[in-house]
Specification:
The complex is a heterodimer of chains A (907) and B (125). Chain A has 907 residues and is an alpha+beta fold. Chain A contains 26 helices and 26 strands. In chain A, a hairpin with a 2-residue loop joins strand 5 and strand 6 (195-204). The longest helix of chain A is centred in the N-terminal third of the chain and has 40 residues, at 48-87. In chain B, helix 1 (21-32) crosses helix 2 and helix 1 (21-32) packs across helix 4 (95-117). Classes of the chains: A alpha+beta (907), B mainly alpha (125).
Chain lengths: 907, 125
């Protein structure tokens, strides 16, 4: 017994502490009783054994029941919240809709950004991968590269393309890396069951699959044994998507022979659905051994008379290389060892190479392989910022609505406080309501985002060259949406929370529903409206800038006629055509197409104008001193009717004609930009210049046209007849039609098929579509920012209206007195409008300031105007002030119609 | 006995059935008189020969729910001021609570009768 008494006090204290696990109301209500009951039982227990049992029961009871009580409380709050929302459906609908738009837009953009910026290749330990990159000074030390060479921030050059002989030297440094994975992304004509189709493919080294840890779901992967070279039977692994699309997922695909660029290859395996190659932004359908390049993708080699394979040609830099690091070798050591090997191998294979002093190897992150999506990173960030603003605006809007509601619920809150409801429970109640709103909004937002997830990538990518941007909704996107909803809820809950915290029982009940803390609340309300106007300013200004950029770009003079033009690409495989045969094929195609009814004229060119990339060549005017580095200009090999078909005026001399054949003297036509740069005070006609294919004579000058895109100034360009220049393989066919361009397509297809049944027409589109496609990013920004801007405007006008209506309602008495004292109707009207205008002005000023600060981030995305463009700014200000006045007009009129007598009586 | 007429806003007793074991025991122990929490606990333990021991947590969770459902009421006055610890709270069956407890008892009675009819239990003599 004595022992029992000794234990009793600490046991009870412990039990009381444990009671804290209960919701505060439950504890307040029953905690003391529960402790008393425990005390009684403890006292009445027969022996210590039973006392211990009683204590344990009590402890387990609390642990079991406390969470249940919490759950009940939450459920009850939720039910209460639902009832409140149902009672005020217009409030609930407005709030949920604006949240849904905010969260939906953010979710969709996040899903895209995840793909564009964050996601790694679906291979084993992608963080161990490094992309080998060479950097150099201003002078390019290695021969022209098949792949991208880009400028570095330091003013030098960089590229991820290496020559095969160099790769083989790098491979010998085995001790500093685990694996070197070589690959090249290419396009091939795949013929399955007689149907030719251009597919994305990757040539990979035999070790690629095992080094990347990529499994096949059927058959086997490529192995180093497949690296046997052109002598070995070519094996191919296909992607799961290609398997499903072309082979209906049948197991009999193994051992099947398909033709790639006319060469039969045997399918030996199918990769898992996740893996679509080492290139972000394209989906490889077929994987073949890199060593089969001479067979599958022979390329013209200009060294000597005999075509050489790329595999033993030190002059061609084309292979992309991923290194998997060794865990126990520091990255710097790997880079240093590979750098030494690269320099040694380059000097050994290219004895004449210059600029090697600054030629070095760098390890770049390789977890995204060859990343074509990186160009979308910046647009994604800007989109994120835009949608972030929309969400913030939605928050402010809901906060404003909640504030208005808090005012009308003042009495309810005070009454509940007076009746003994704890402030804590009121806070929880408010949080639960916000949670309910934000979660419902979030749910609707996720649905919106889910259905809208493919809209943005579709707008973002080029129909001619589809970028693989499949956006998948996974747990990360969902958790983002939930996170966004929670943060949103917390942000806008601040307003009503503050209200509950400050609610004062006595004054609230005494004063009734009006006027409690009127001044502070009015400031808060005004602040929110100012913030709304400011956010709207930013969005509207951005919309104005993006829309005007799009308009400016669309109205840029092209220098040629883009209407009634049908374009498509041809890429006859070198496995079936020699250079001479290819030239002959193109000539025949030109002739065949010209006879089709509805076709006015036909031409070919190496690249299409606008949106088809660049094609550089060296340029040296004969007789002038040789410059270092050599001058480079743009070159386009074209058909004889090119200028006439494209509608490019010949300004001086002549265009090409039927006499400019492979056997006649070589001629060229240059554009004005080239004349300006090289023949400022001379007549260019008759001058000679040299480029990679030898010396040519200038016979004509044509007008400038936009070249690779709409933004850039016309670069100096020369045109040569394609029959007189080295054959590049692929050619663009341009057809001017009398009527709608697609009306001749079926005849065109027939004509090409009659010459080569296995030659697909690639990327068929009109010239206008081609140009429009280059504006996809601009268009999406113009469209999305206008939508958001309009939304912002609507929300802001609702905000102004709501606040002014509330103010007028509150001040009815005061207005009545003033009118009774002789204030005129116009004065009352002006007073209310002035207030609305002041809020709008403050918001606009705030928004303008923020916009000009933010503008630096989008400066490069604009065209034909600056971010501080005065026309856009003035337009935005006028629009917002107009909207504010409109929003204030209703309440102002109501104020001016106040009847002094009834207002005073009411008072 | 004809069913007693219920007031229009009072829920039907049958809508509460079947009752949770603890709930029914609490209602039964409040059937004869008002009690405070510990008294309920003792009564239940006695009637079940110690087989059912309510912990303070389960007792007050049930009491709270019964109060919310309107099956019991808290007394504002102390029934026996002399022997009363004035801090204790007393509970009594409400009219609805009594009807619910009776409905549950009848339900169990019928169940018992069925068990007898099917021979699971010896027929009453």
């Amino acid at each position: 017994m004595i022992q029992g008494l000794k234990l009793r006090q600490p046991a009870l204290a412990a039990f009381r502490t444990l009671l804290r696990l209960y919701p505060v109301e439950f504890r307040d209500e029953y905690g003391r009783e529960m402790a008393m009951v425990l005390c009684d039982r403890y006292r009445d227990a027969a022996n210590s054994w039973e006392r211990i049992l009683i204590l344990m029961e009590a402890v387990f009871g609390v642990l079991f029941h406390a969470p249940k009580e919490h759950f009940r409380t939450i459920l009850r709050d939720l039910r209460y919240g639902f009832r409140l929302l149902r009672k005020d459906p217009s409030f609930a609908l407005t709030a949920i809709l604006s949240l849904a738009i905010g969260i939906g837009a953010n979710t969709a953009v996040f899903a895209i950004a995840k793909k564009v910026v964050f996601e790694a290749l679906p291979v084993k330990n992608p963080q161990q991968l490094r992309m080998l990159t060479w950097v150099s000074g201003h002078e390019q030390p290695v021969p022209p590269v098949w792949g991208d060479v880009y400028s570095t921030k330091e003013g030098g050059l960089a590229s991820t393309s290496f020559s095969y002989p160099v790769l083989e030297e790098l491979r010998k440094q085995k001790e500093v890396f685990r694996d070197l994975i070589a690959f090249k992304d290419v396009e091939m004509t795949a013929t399955v069951d007689g149907h030719p189709e251009l597919v994305s493919a990757e040539m990979v080294s035999g070790n690629a699959f095992s080094a990347l840890g990529v499994q096949t779901i059927l058959g086997r992967a490529l192995t180093p044994i497949d690296d046997g070279g052109p002598g070995a039977a070519p094996a191919a692994v296909i992607s799961e998507g290609y398997w499903a699309e072309k082979f209906n997922r049948t197991a009999s695909v193994l051992g099947k022979t398909i033709s790639l660029n006319g060469t039969p290859v045997t399918i030996v395996g199918v990769t898992g659905a996740q893996f679509t190659g080492l290139t972000m932004g394209s989906t490889a359908r077929v994987f073949v051994p890199l060593t089969q390049q001479p067979l599958l993708m022979p390329r013209a080699q200009t060294i000597g008379a005999n075509p050489r394979s790329l595999l033993d040609n030190p002059q061609s830099w084309w292979v992309l290389v991923l290194a998997r690091l060794r865990e126990n070798v520091p990255e710097a050591q790997t880079q240093a060892a590979l750098d030494v090997a690269l320099r040694r191998a380059t000097i050994a294979t290219l004895p004449d190479a210059k600029g090697l002093a600054e030629f070095h190897l760098r390890l770049q992150p390789g977890d995204r392989g060859l990343d074509y999506l990186r160009t979308f990173a910046k647009p994604s960030y800007v989109l994120f910022a835009l949608t972030g603003l929309v969400l913030l605006l939605a928050c402010v809007n809901v906060a404003n609505l909640l504030l208005a509601r808090a005012v009308s619920r003042q009495r309810e809150i005070s009454t509940r406080l007076a009746l003994g409801a704890g402030r804590a429970s009121m806070v929880r109640q408010v949080l639960m309501e916000s949670f309910l709103l934000s979660m419902t909004g979030g749910l609707a937002g996720v649905l919106l985002g889910y259905f809208g997830r493919n809209i943005i990538p579709r707008l973002l990518t080029n129909p001619g060259r589809p970028v693989n941007l499949s956006v998948d909704f996974d747990w990360r996107v969902l958790s983002f949406a939930v996170g966004a909803a929670l943060v949103t809820g917390a942000v806008f809950a601040v307003v009503p929370l503050r209200h509950v915290m400050q609610a004062d029982v006595i004054t609230a009940l005494k004063d009734g529903a009006h006027a409690t803390g009127g001044r502070a609340k009015a400031y808060l309300g005004k602040g929110l409206v100012v913030l709304q106007v400011a956010l709207s300013t930013i969005l509207l200004l951005g919309a104005g800038l993006f829309v005007r950029t799009l308009v400016n770009l669309s109205h840029t003079p092209l220098g040629f006629r883009a209407d009634h033009m049908l374009l498509f690409k041809l890429n006859p495989p070198r496995t079936r055509y020699t250079d001479a045969q290819m030239g002959e094929l193109y000539r025949q195609i030109e002739q065949a197409l010209a006879t089709i009814p509805g076709v006015q004229s036909v031409t070919l060119s190496n690249i299409a104008l606008i949106g088809d990339g660049h094609s550089g060549a060296s340029f040296h005017v004969s007789g002038r001193p040789v410059t270092k580095p050599e001058d480079r200009v743009q070159k386009n090999g074209v058909g004889e009717d090119f200028f006439q078909t494209m509608g490019i005026p010949v300004l001086q001399g002549r265009g090409f004609n039927v006499h400019d054949s492979p056997r006649s003297p070589k001629v060229a036509v240059v554009n004005r930009a080239l004349v300006r740069q090289y023949f400022r005070n001379e007549n260019p006609i008759g001058q000679m210049f040299e480029y990679e294919d030898g010396a040519v004579q200038i016979v004509g000058v044509v007008a400038d046209t936009r070249y690779a895109d709409l933004r850039s100034e016309t670069p100096p360009t020369f045109y040569v007849p394609y029959q007189q220049s080295s054959v590049s393989g692929r050619m663009m066919v341009e057809i001017r039609t009398a009527t709608e361009p697609f009306s001749v397509l079926s005849e065109v297809r027939k004509a090409v098929e009659s010459l080569d049944r296995d030659l697909p027409l690639i990327d068929v589109r009109t010239q206008e579509q081609q140009i429009k496609a280059t504006l996809s990013t601009e268009r999406i920004f113009a469209e999305l920012s206008s939508t958001f801007g309009l939304l912002a405007l609507t929300l802001a006008s609702i905000g102004v209206y709501g606040l002014m209506a509330y103010t007028v309602a509150q001040r009815t008495g005061e207005i009545g007195i003033r009118m009774a004292l002789g204030a005129r109707v116009e004065q009352v009207l002006a007073g209310v409008l002035r207030e609305a205008l002041w809020m709008a002005l403050a918001g606009v000023a705030l928004g303008m300031g923020a916009s000009f600060w933010l503008a630096r981030f989008i400066g490069t995305m604009l065209y034909g105007l600056k971010a501080t463009d005065p026309i856009t700014a003035v337009g935005t200000v006028a629009l917002l002030l107009g909207i504010a006045l409109l929003g204030g007009m209703g309440p102002a009129r109501r104020a001016s119609r106040v009847d002094p007598l009834s207002a005073l009586r009411h008072e | 006995m004809p069913p007693r007429r219920q007031s229009p806003d009072e829920p039907a007793p049958e809508s509460f059935l079947p009752l949770h074991r603890d709930t029914f025991h609490i209602l039964v122990s409040l059937g004869d008189r008002e009690r405070h929490g510990y008294s309920v606990m003792q009564d239940v333990a006695e009637r079940t020969n110690g087989a059912l021991r309510l912990s303070p947590s389960s007792l007050y969770a049930s009491i709270k729910r019964l109060l919310e459902q309107g099956l019991i009421e808290e007394l504002l006055e102390r029934p026996d001021p002399k022997h009363d610890d004035e801090r204790r709270r007393y509970y009594a069956l409400s009219r609805l609570g009594r009807r619910v407890a009776m409905a549950e008892a009848r339900r169990l009675e019928r169940l018992l009768a069925d068990a007898r009819a099917s021979g699971l239990l010896p027929k009453r003599s």
